[in-house]
Specification:
globular; 6 helices; 0% strand; 182 residues; mainly alpha
């Protein structure tokens, strides 16, 4: 739970920090908004490509230099809440470029109204939904399902998650482009 809290708070703080920056770009020009839509669309195409050719695109994964450190450090997380929190924040930061396309699209859409209470509530809801699969995995693990079985199941459905994410990103990009051109 400490690890999940760290991931949640890191993403939330990233959103609070990035939202005004994206808003200033949007105020600067419609072209910046369209450029972000194109970036989101490209990431959507990369995700779809990963469905058809798994493992071809390393941009969507945590760089190996970080994943190796995470593997080494995970043993230190047991019974060390401070280290566990720092690991969650570290993983969220190095994972942000991998998972950030959807977040970028959501933040860009939110940027139309600026940093308001309703957007903060939406960021909290989005980030809760982001960590919800991790919470579900934690509950399943707590109920006695082995980590090997969980990994098998995740790997079995990973291509479909990639495809769904790619389609979602393309739809978001199209929606953003349409929104910018209206």
């Amino acid at each position: 739970m400490v690890y999940l809290l760290a991931v949640f708070l890191t993403y939330l703080l990233a959103g609070v920090f990035l939202l005004p920056i994206i808003q200033s770009l949007g105020n600067f020009s419609v072209n910046a908004y369209i450029a972000i839509a194109i970036i989101v669309g490209v990431f959507g195409l990369i995700e779809i490509r990963e469905y058809f050719k798994p493992g071809d695109t390393s941009i969507l994964e945590i760089p190996s230099r970080y994943s190796e450190k995470i593997k080494l450090w995970k043993e230190k997380m047991l019974n060390n809440y401070g280290f566990t929190f720092l690991m969650g924040a570290f993983v969220a930061i190095v994972e942000l470029p991998c998972t950030g396309a959807v977040y970028l699209a959501v933040l860009t859409l939110m940027s139309q109204s600026g940093l308001e209470v309703s957007n903060i509530v939406m960021l909290i809801a989005y980030n809760f939904l982001f960590i919800l699969p991790l919470i579900i995995i934690l509950v399943i693990f707590y109920k006695g399902v082995s980590s090997e079985k969980i990994t098998q199941t995740v790997n079995k459905y990973k291509p479909y998650m990639r495809l769904a994410t790619g389609i979602l990103l393309l739809l978001l990009a199209l929606w953003m482009a349409r929104f910018a051109l209206v």
